[in-house]
Amino acid sequence: MSLSEEYYKRSLNVCPGGVHSPVRSYKAVGGTPVFFKEGRGAHLTSVENESYIDFCQSFGPLILGHRDPEVEEAVLSQIGSLWTSGTCEAYSLELGEWIIEHVPAVEKLRFVSSGTEAVMSALRVARAVTKRDKVLKFEGCYHGHVDSLLVEAGSGLAGVSASSSAGVSSIQASQTLVCPLNDKEAYLKILEENKDDIAAVIIEPLPANFGLIELDHEYLKFVVDEAQKRCALVIFDEVISGFRAALGGMAEVLNIKPDLVTYGKVMGGGFPVGCYGGRKEFMDLVAPVGPVYQAGTLSANPVGMVAGLTTLKKAKRENIWKTFTERSKMMSEDFNSWSKSEGLKKRMHTFGSLFWICETEIGKLNSIKDIPKDHGEKFKSFFKSLLDQKLYLAPNGYEVGFLGLAHTEEVLKESLDIFKKACKETSS
Asked: Does the annotation mark 259 as catalytic?
């Protein structure tokens, strides 16, 4: 029995499924999870002392890679000063000022401890602003494990929803309307039928939780304009795309200013941090200034604040977004050219530092309908081949891969060889 197998067996007695988040489970791919003990740059080291190229990158936060030396130095210095205090401190002030200076979509903000918490709080603000209860979300977009957003399309009628998780009440599910992506007609129908009830329209402007879907800019502008015409707030969920798609996230890419925006992941530099922000008049409804109550003992944890600010300053200084665009373009062009020449259907889809491999010849995915129905099943053997070759992707076929600055051209070329070998081994 390997050490990972031993740890997994013990973990099953400690927590549900042996994991503390279902996305870490190997339920979708089979087998025993690899347990890791160390990260450095683009690599993870297992408890068996095997080195893996890591494209999970903690599901996105590690935009510079594991334990970036500059961030590590700042973190170690901070640990020697203050871990947490439950008081006012300067660390969150510095990060907050930096974000407001560099991100036009954020006029004021509040730090929390996770992306889910940020979304939950933004929805509360939207309901307070509009005095309405309902929220409209889109199929294929994930917004954390907030009860009211753990829903899916119900009977097939536009807007009808049903809970996608046990424990979510039918009353909560009924307050969320679900619309298919890239369907303007369905969207307008839901808006009109609920025009006096919708508090907010929430969307991932770069959907990256069900494959990698790239929406047209014109469509996203349409979504925003039509919502605001009906006095519903627009919330951009940029927990993944924030500071990854660009310094100002997709709001900057699209040149759209949402009413509220949520962040997480990259902003904490690898530590548990989240944030919601937006227009001053809306954020000033939050306690202690306004009537919207939201609190958190560990919100704006000093270590996360310092790690996040150091990460973002380095990202801006080195203009990592240009580097990511160049590297992902090199990767996808090489892989897709090779796949076509081999007569294979697998394609690598990219957007900046995000990538996703899927068996489809469509150039750009616009909807979850573009994803082959058997993708999840086919991913199992692909994942196992990659794992055997010491390359780690998230153990679910619908999770995207993430580049970090530590993924040098040399690492990416080595990774391409592994991807190609896995494709050949698993092609039917």
From this structure: no
Q: Which of 52, 142, 187, 263 is catalytic?
A: 142
- The per-residue pLDDT for 156 is 45
Which residue in 54, 68, 237, 259 is the catalytic one?
237
- Domain chopping of the chain, boundaries: 3-67+319-426, 69-317
Is 265 among the residues known to form the active site? yes
Q: What pLDDT does residue 158 have?
A: 47
Fold of 69-317: Aspartate Aminotransferase; domain 2 (3.40.640)
Catalytic option among 134, 137, 265, 346 = 265
Give the Cα-Cα-Cα angle 166, 260, 93 (nearest 5 degrees): 105
List, for the chain, all residue ranges whose pLDDT scores fall below the cut of 70.
Answer: 153-163, 428
The CATH class for the domain spanning 3-67+319-426 reads alpha beta
